[in-house]
Amino acid sequence: MVASGFNPLGWVREKIVPQTREKQTREEIAEAKKQAAEEGNRSIFESQPTVVEKPVKEGRTWAMTDIKNRDKLVGAKEHKYSTANFKISHRKLNMLANQISGKPVDWAILQMQFSEKRASTRIMNMLATAKDHASRYKRMDRSKLIVCLEAEAWVTKGSRPPKRIEPRGRNHYGVRQHPNSKMTVVLRHGKTVEEKKVERREKILKRIVSAGVTREDIPLRNPAPTWRGFVAKRRVNIRLAKNSNHESGHVDVTPTTISSRNRWRTFPSTLFLALLSLTATCIAEEAAFENTAIVRTAELGGSIVHVTTTYAIKSLANGQDRYTVAFSRKERDASSFLEVKIKGQKDPLEIRERPFYANAKFTEVDVLLPKKLAVNATLNLVMETIQAHVTEPWPEYAGQKDEQAMRYTTDLFVLSSYPTLVQRTKIKALVPRIISHTTPEVGSFASDNVASKSGATITYGPFNGIPVSTSNDFLKEYQQPITIRYYHEQPVLEVTDYKRSVELSHWGSNVNTEDHIVLYNAGPKLKGHFSRVEYQQLAYFSKSSPHILHSLRMDLPPGINNVYYYDLVGNVSTSRLNEAPAVPKGQPVRKPSVIEIKPRYPLLGGWNYTFTLGWDADLAHVAGYNKSSGEYTVEVPVMTAIPGAVVNNLEVKIVLPEGATDIEVITPYPARAMWLDKHTTYLDTVGRPAIMFEYKDLTIKHAQNIYVIYRLSAKEHFRKPFAVSAVFFGFFIFTFVVRRIDLTIHKKQKTA
Q: How confident is the model at residue 211, as a pLDDT?
């Protein structure tokens, strides 16, 4: 019997176990496909016709649904995307839209990621999807999408959902309807952060305009208004004889009366000396200086106008140490403050006003330079003036709901005794709501537009090649007024009468200050009758008229106490006070006490309000004692500044302790009048010396301090106790004597 060679296990292993397959070459595969095609056994994948695909550029992918519209999508400038309607109020969703509107898309996604709002997650996912679609389907630059895409978002209400009943108590029910809305965003290409910085820097640099013909090391700019006080002080000696009685008025006051306006100095001179001085000065200064540029900036307000004039001067001769500034008579009479500085320095320069005739068209002021200038030397001078009562309401009457319009008139050219190469005038209002402005004709001085408006600023000029403008021919032919009408959104305030009384007490170690103020609203007068209903309606909707004064805020000294405020009717409780702690003597005041006064009635145009404000302070905070000389020095503020208001008349009364002698006064600026008076109060014997000052047309610049120096001997400290003791002792002696006098009437005894 012959054995069979078939092994079933080996056959199964051969069929099931994977074997190593040899790789066929391309020629073998092509030959096999050709043989299968001849036999008709081709694969179903090879039986379909082949499609030749067009090459696609690298980095561009398309969705199958957008193949037909891909030509429209290529180069798209924006991509719009929105969420579906979901249950949320459109007001709540609008707050998120305002948060991301106009911001880079990555910044918006980051804000939504860390937002606590419930809808922020949905908005974040929508922004991420919109960003991805914009870069993928519309081929918007992905590098710019990260930082440059800006989101424009808005919210719309969805469809009105069905109403449902909400059961309530006591057999009542309500209807509840949940709102729904959606958010839509539009993504666009924007500028990068660096591009925005460069654009902002170029915009700022364009505003910097050199006022000179030749570029200097430091370009000339219009300096911002800096409210600084005077540095120059005026010392006045008031001598009292120790044994004299000042009740008779025998005092030596130097000077007794200062009749010029604040900060201006007058010089008595004869006609011959005036002509001689003017002639000599004109000959000496014929070719002394040249103005390379003059830039005047007037900041319009209510009752005051702040004017800053910058002179870029060039010396034409050696040894020039005096520069002359010219003013028109109207500007000189309206100016209550004048200060000249070198640009970039804090200390003001000394000024001297030249004598002038009563009918002169202009006045001149000499500015003493700190050093003599050589030929072709340049210098920038900044002159700061404050003009009072130069604006007026126009129209003069306005209704309770009407707006407040003001009118300001000034001269077109800045007067100067020297030729000027370039001159420009800028007039700025508080808000960009200028009604109208004058457009004058200047002839050949201006090549471009004479007047241009940009926001709240009206610019006149530049004017080139201006000769000496103080000549009569120039004033008659070229000088002309310009008028600006503008809206002013703050009350126009004036203080018609201001009386301050400061009383010093050594025994009580106290300084009492009391102000009697008459406040006047100089805005347009009320047309018709006042309606309390309309006033309450405007206050409820926060739409009060700008010419109505509701409250007044004033800064008081720190460390004060016992503050009181009342008017003609009585005490007014509608006021708030924030007291600040006292400042050690010799250190600057950083935080004053603030009082907010609310008058008894709203102050409309043409109305007055009279009130009294007072407080006490520790004498040690404002006074000092010099042991070597035995002198006391007291610091007294001239007034309490009211923002934006001009003080027409001010009277300051400083009452010293009884028996004070050797009185000296240091004033920050000259007073119109100053004299010594007597003040008598309770427990006084001969009365107290009182120093009186009179001022006119003061602004916030004049809110400075008066220093009073006096002596007070030791026996004067005990004058009041001795007087009180003498009165009580005299009364005791009087009662002792009276009790021992028998005033009874005795009956005569009958004789027997």
A: 44
Q: Single out the residue of 234, 494, 222 nearest to residue 384, CA to CA.
A: 222
Tell me the percentage of the chain whose pLDDT exceeds 70.
79
d(CA 553, CA 599): 11
Residues 500, 508: Cα–Cα separation, whole Å = 20
Confidence of residue 523 (pLDDT cuts 50, 70, 90): very high
- Hey, what are 646's tokens? 């001009």
Which of 708, 698, 644 is CA-nearest to residue 676? 708
Of the candidates 116, 110, 117, 180, which has an alpha carbon nearest to the alpha carbon of residue 151? Answer: 110
- Rounded CA-CA distance 227/467 in Å is 33
560: phi then psi, degrees, rounded to nearest 5: -90, 165
The residue among 176, 157, 156 whose CA lies nearest residue 166 is 176
Rounded to 5 degrees, φ, ψ at 150 are -110, 140
Return the exposure string of 609-626: e unless at least 16 CB atoms fall within 10 Å of the residue's CB, then b.
Answer: bebebbbbbebebbbeee
Round to whole Å and give the CA distance between 729 and 45: 138
Contact 614, 563 (CB under 8 A): yes
3-state secondary structure of 434: strand
Q: Would the pTM count as exceeding 0.85?
A: no
How far is the C-alpha of 364 from the C-alpha of 354, rounded, in Å?
6
Cα four-point dihedral sign 595, 691, 705, 224: positive
For 291, what's the count of Cα atoms within 13 Å in the CB-facing half-sphere?
Answer: 29
693-722 b/e with 16+ CB inside 10 Å = b?
bebbbbbbbbbeebebbbbbeeebeebbee
- Residue 153 pLDDT: 56
Alpha helices in 458-508 (DSSP H): 472-477
List pLDDT tens digits, range 444-481. 787 778 899 998 999 998 999 999 999 888 998 899 99
pLDDT in tens, 24-78: 777 888 888 888 777 766 655 554 444 444 444 444 444 434 444 544 555 677 8
In the DSSP assignment, the letter for residue 619 is: G
Does residue 272 register a pLDDT over 50?
no
Nearest-angstrom CA–CA distance, 352 and 236: 20
Separation CA 97–CA 472 (nearest Å):
65
Region 198-204 average pLDDT: 82
Over residues 102-111, the pLDDT tens digits come to 788 888 888 8
How much is the CA Rg of the chain, to the nearest whole Å? 44
Q: What is the average pLDDT across 253-274?
A: 38
Q: Is the pLDDT of residue 580 over 80?
A: yes
DSSP secondary structure string, 642-706?
-TT-EEEEEEEEEEPPTT-EEEEEEESS--SEEEEEEE--TT-SS-EEEEEEEEEEE-GGG--EE
Q: Judging by beta carbons within 10 Å of its beta carbon (0-12, 13-18, 19+), is residue 566 exposed, middle or buried?
A: middle
Which residue is it, tokens 């009294």?
A: 612
Choice between 541 and 235, residue whose per-residue pLDDT is larger: 541
